[in-house]
Design goal:
This protein is an alpha/beta fold and 346 residues long. The protein is built from eleven helices and 13 strands. It binds N-carbamoyl-L-aspartate and zinc ion (2 copies). N-carbamoyl-L-aspartate binds next to loops. One zinc ion binds next to loops. One of its GO terms (molecular function) is dihydroorotase activity.
Length: 346
């Protein structure tokens, strides 16, 4: 007898869809399982203004498969030139759900990001007044700080001061990777939440470096020690509403990852729900998968949960999907390193 689990349709609160041929190739994988997604704005050039977000949203909707009910929730890329009035208008008109802070140089396509937090204070104050969330890539970029410490240092050097200056700003720490970040969110009673990715629940830094270098496990923030992965799993399965799914599914063409300086990002959209079911099953907490993937996110974003459901089925292991083929080349799908016994029923 196969085991079945029906949950509200999940949402992805941190997703990269890219544009053009890659957008067309990857969007069906997300639209197949997820009702909505927070779409990250780190295109080249970035999605900065309300007009940019409107145009990008139209390109996404045009790339949706026939009959898909997927809703993209747009974000604006915060720059030192961002106009608070444009942000407020985008929020009021339902064009943008959140604003994304990239410290300049922190990650893929972050060159237009913020160098001096004081310069963006007026935008953040406006967002605080209107209740618009700020999504944060939480890593410092100072080359003197070890890459494995950049998230923990960001909390002390940037996030704590920011929360003192703009205490009512609603913040999502994106793709948290450390016990320090989990503790910080847990110890903060209000206005702070965190997304956790699929892959950070599954891999630690050995996956990238032990026994050979594996570029398909390289992402930012980089995976940390096993004790941090364990802390992330505990947070995800705890049911604490401040933690929810943001896959950070971040497709890059294979040649861009498999080179002397490969780029950061893991493409997990096709296998995320199967992987999460396994993680929650192994933890003995399948009962909390729905909170993590389908309920806690909408609650933070003040949206209703999706009104339909998906069903996960446990059976014989299925082969990992092969690379997604795009007109520009293949994109390798995240390999969790364990058999996929769960799948989403078609
Ligand atoms: N996570 C990643 O490693 N890469 C993301 C950017 C990001 O989310 O930081 C990307 O856009 O490729
Ligand atoms: Zn990021
Ligand atoms: Zn991301």
């Amino acid at each position: 007898m196969s085991e079945r689990l029906t949950i509200r349709r999940p949402d992805d609160w941190h997703l990269h869809l890219r544009d053009g041929a890659v957008l067309r190739a990857v969007l069906p994988d997300t639209a197949a399982h997820f009702g909505r997604a927070i779409v990250m704005p780190n295109l080249v050039p970035p999605v900065v203004t309300a007009a940019d977000a409107t145009a990008y949203r139209e390109r996404i909707v045009a790339a949706l498969p026939e009959g898909a009910r997927f809703e993209p929730l747009m974000t604006l890329y915060l720059t030192e030139e961002t106009d608070p009035a444009d942000v407020a208008r985008a929020h009021a008109q339902g064009i943008a759900t959140a604003v994304k802070l990239y410290p300049a140089g922190a990650t893929t396509n972050s060159a237009s990001g913020v160098r001096n937090m004081d310069k963006v204070r007026p935008v953040l104050e406006t967002m605080s007044e209107i209740g618009m969330p700020l999504c944060v890539h939480g890593e410092v970029t100072n080359p003197d700080v070890d890459i494995f410490d950049r998230e923990a240092v960001f909390i002390d050097k940037v996030l704590r001061p920011l929360r003192r200056h703009v205490p009512d700003l609603r913040i999502v720490m994106e793709h948290v990777t450390t016990a320090e970040a989990v503790d910080y969110v847990r110890d903060t009673p209000r206005k702070l939440a965190a997304t956790i990715t699929t892959h950070h629940l599954i891999i630690n830094r050995n996956a990238i470096l032990a026994g050979g270098i594996r570029p398909h496990y390289y992402c930012l923030p980089v995976a940390k020690r096993e004790r941090h992965r364990v802390a992330l799993v505990e947070a995800a399965v705890s049911g604490d509403p401040r933690f929810f799914l943001g896959t950070d599914s971040a497709p890059h063409l294979d040649p861009a990852k498999l080179q002397p300086c490969g780029c950061a990002g893991i493409y997990s959209a096709p296998v995320t729900m199967a992987c999460l079911a396994e993680v929650f099953d192994v933890a003995g907490r399948l009962d909390e998968l729905e909170s993590f993937a389908s309920l806690n996110g909408p609650r933070f974003y003040r949206l209703p949960p999706n009104d339909d459901t998906i069903t996960l089925v446990k059976g014989d292991a299925r082969p990992l999907p092969g690379p997604v083929e795009t007109d520009e080349g293949p994109i390798t799908v995240f390999d969790p390193g364990f058999p996929l016994h769960w799948h989403v029923e078609a």
